[in-house]
Design goal:
The complex is a heterodimer of chains A (343) and B (343). By secondary structure, chain A is an all-beta fold. Helices cover 3% and strands 48% of the residues of chain A. In chain A, strands 10, 11, 14, 15, 18 and 20 form a six-stranded antiparallel β-sheet that branches. In chain A, strands 2, 4, 5, 6 and 8 form a five-stranded antiparallel β-sheet that branches. In chain A, strands 12, 13, 16, 17 and 19 form a five-stranded antiparallel β-sheet that branches. Chain A is flat, with a radius of gyration of 21 Å. Chain B is mainly beta and 343 residues long. In chain B, 4% of the residues lie in helices and 44% in strands. Chain B has three helices and 23 strands. In chain B, the strands form five sheets. In chain B, strands 6, 7, 14, 15, 17, 18, 21 and 23 form an eight-stranded mixed β-sheet that branches. Chain B is globular, with a radius of gyration of 20 Å. Chains A and B meet through strand 14, strand 17, helix 2 and strand 18 of A and strand 1, strand 3, helix 1, strand 9 and strand 10 of B.
């Protein structure tokens, strides 16, 4: 039996192979533009009154308006999580920077032009993100992780935001002495014009760093690039609407070269000395780079971001006045865990 | 340094048509400290630059136009045979097509969207990334560069259309892993190896690998994966949308595989029962490889001087329904392995 904490002798019969009941709890809320909101956290308490372990956290996000035309993605929704008063996230982090993508959003291309053949790709869809925890997270009886969402205003619509916790119920006697508590911290670059060069900019030393008094094990980096576009579209009802969407830059042409980065540690150790394509640094596949390492207290990572110009071929350009104000952003997160005592 | 830390070495080169072999900056590809490195992934990013045109269809993969040779110290990590018109089986060289470095990243996009990437009213060329997740981590001593040599030669000129791809490509290579705080202890080092074979298959030509897959090393090769794909030249290949296209397919070629003793090839993970194929009943490449990854895991050993044999033969043009004259197939197959080299 693999557990997230050192349970000592408190598991009782479970040690002999007792099966545990699965448990899935979900809560959702509507978050207005540039506002915060918490779902009903009581819905995230195990109703059986027993402790349990969370193995996976799933996020869902959907535009509450303009459903016909667009969707929102994990760039537009931030989440702040805490476990028994201790941070799981470093304040608010984009929900798509917690775990590598597991859902269909990875395979959905950006909206291209407003041609009918492509239109079907950019109608309203829910976006889902899964964060499979590296170690199960123990939750004592009658306790819950605290959840708060923030609609960061990248899209001009309220967001229907949900969280689902997937795990298993533990014996009533189970009580670990130490728990491996997950942790995510993210750095967002500013938004740059899509076509022109920009930057560089450097992440603050206090963003991607170990804020705890104990070592922090980092399991992976996640590097996302998002595009934000204002556009107008004629809906099935014949009405032209203006809206803003933000989406993962996953098309073949953009993701790899839109940004370059350098990367070093606050200790002076160099991770990437020279400018390297964002995708080549933080991973092309699933936007992640699995590289386990230990951060001592106060030690962290520093990322330098540069926006590259996107050369265009005027002869091949098909200007589309309906897509305007395209900008792009790079987001880098560190995902890991540290050990905590159960309060 | 007290703890292991992430490290990514990178360098880029510009490859003109016919460039016969360019070394990347070796100083950028070695540890900047006196520490050992543990490399887990090798990444190649190809940007075809100005190769775009709104009316012409673009290649989906440029990895068959760019060959890569990788070595560390005196140990080669790649080798291969690339066929020519006069020598279809090819001669042994240090290169493999970048396509074979690993499972293709972006194969899941729909066909239409594969050709041209559009955004912000402009069209861009596709860019490709190839990631070789090493079957065993590669330990690199201090002051030892990871040598990448890239080329874009005329051996596959028929697939590198001069009118479409007259300009230079930018190729950025990277090695990702961990900088070790302490010197590792080992009695032998695992050296990953990728041996490719790209027979020149004109229409209906049957090509045997002959000695292409002979183990020329002193150590046993532990085979871990077969990777493959097929490139088509422009020819008269007619796509479903009626456009003349250059693209990469895995359908039109069949392949037979049998090992040195004509014994079964053992498969550790596969939905397809992969045994040695019947020499009289070749199977489509698509049946051999998992569509998701363009590869299949195997578990086999190739002793020194033993030979792994393969045969490729294109499906007849009529059977493939792809027209006839002028099409040149470039099937690509590679054996991924590692060998243990005494320290």
């Amino acid at each position: 039996m693999r557990t997230g904490g050192n349970y000592g002798n408190t598991l009782g019969a479970a040690k002999l192979g007792q099966r545990f009941d699965p448990l899935i709890l979900r809560a959702e809320t509507l978050v207005d533009v540039s506002s915060n909101a918490s779902p009903n956290n009581n819905a995230l308490i195990n109703p059986s009154g027993e402790p349990w372990e969370i193995h996976e956290i799933k996020f869902g996000v959907r535009r509450e308006t303009d459903l016909t035309y667009s969707r929102a993605t994990g760039a537009a929704l931030d989440v702040a999580l805490s476990w028994l008063g201790k941070p799981v996230t470093d304040g608010f982090v984009p929900v798509w920077n917690c775990g590598p993508p597991q859902a269909v959003e990875e395979f959905r291309p950006l909206p291209a032009t407003s041609t009918a053949t492509l239109g079907e790709y950019w109608k309203a869809q829910d976006s889902f993100y899964s964060w499979k925890l590296d170690h199960p997270l123990y939750i004592p009886a009658r306790q819950a992780i605290a959840v708060e969402f923030r609609n960061n205003g990248l899209v001009n619509a309220a967001l229907r935001s949900s969280i689902a916790l997937i795990g298993r119920v533990m014996p009533r006697s189970a009580r670990p002495t130490k728990v491996k508590v997950p942790y995510v911290s993210a750095y967002k670059s500013r938004f740059y014009d899509f076509l022109t060069a920009g930057g560089p900019e450097v992440s603050p030393e206090t963003t991607l760093f170990n804020q705890f008094h104990s070592p922090l094990t980092i399991e992976r980096f996640i590097g996302r690039t998002a595009a934000r576009v204002q556009t107008e579209e004629v809906g099935p009802d014949g009405v032209t609407r203006s809206f803003i969407y933000v989406d993962q830059i996953s098309m073949l042409a953009f993701r790899g070269s839109l940004f370059s980065a350098k990367h070093r540690m606050t200790t002076g150790d160099i991770v990437a000395r020279d400018w390297v394509k964002f995708g080549n640094l933080y991973g092309h596949r699933n936007y992640k780079w699995n590289v386990r390492h230990l951060l001592e207290p106060g030690v962290g990572h520093i990322v330098e971001i540069r926006k590259n110009a996107m050369p265009i071929d005027p002869s091949a350009s098909v200007l589309n006045a309906e897509i305007i104000n395209a900008t792009a952003q790079a987001v880098v997160s560190v995902v890991g865990w540290r050990e905590e005592n159960v309060p | 340094m007290k703890n292991d830390s992430p490290v990514l070495l990178s360098s880029s080169v510009v490859l003109a048509r016919g460039n016969g072999g360019v070394d990347v900056d070796l100083s950028a590809m070695q540890s900047t400290s006196r520490n050992w490195l543990r490399i887990t992934e090798l990444r190649v990013f190809i940007d075809p630059g100005e190769a775009r045109n709104a009316s012409d269809k673009q290649a989906t993969d440029f990895g068959f136009m760019v060959d890569v040779a990788i070595s560390v110290g005196s140990e080669e990590l790649t080798s291969g045979f690339i066929g020519t018109p006069s020598h279809p089986t090819g001669e042994r060289i240090a290169y493999v097509p970048a396509f074979l470095l690993g499972p293709r990243i972006w194969r899941r996009f729909s066909t239409v969207l594969n050709y041209n990437a559009e955004f912000d009213g402009h069209q861009y060329a596709n860019q490709n990334a190839y990631v070789w997740t090493l079957p065993r981590p590669l330990l690199v001593p201090p002051n030892t560069p990871i040598k990448f040599k890239v080329r874009r030669t005329s051996s596959i000129a028929a697939l590198d259309d001069a009118t479409l791809y007259a300009n230079s490509f930018t190729v950025e290579v990277a090695a990702a892993g961990t900088r070790l705080a302490n010197k590792p202890r080992f009695s032998s080092r695992a050296i990953p190896h990728l041996h490719g074979w790209s027979p020149r298959n004109d229409d209906s030509l049957r090509v045997e690998s002959g000695e292409a897959f002979r183990n020329l090393h002193k150590q046993t090769l532990n085979l871990t994966r077969i990777i493959g794909g097929t490139a088509l030249n422009r020819g008269l290949c007619v796509e479903p949308d009626g456009a003349t296209a250059v693209r990469t397919l895995v359908d039109p070629t069949t392949v037979q595989i049998y090992d040195a003793h004509n014994q079964d090839v053992l498969v550790s993970l596969s939905p397809v029962p992969l045994s040695a194929t019947n020499p009289n009943a070749p199977i489509p490449l698509t049946s051999l490889l998992l569509a998701k990854t363009n590869s299949v895991r195997i578990s086999d050993r190739l002793e020194p001087n033993q030979t792994y044999r393969m045969v490729t033969s294109p499906v007849t043009a009529a059977a493939a329904g792809r027209g006839g004259n002028g099409i040149i197939y470039l099937p690509m197959l590679a054996l991924e392995s590692f060998r243990e080299v005494p320290s």
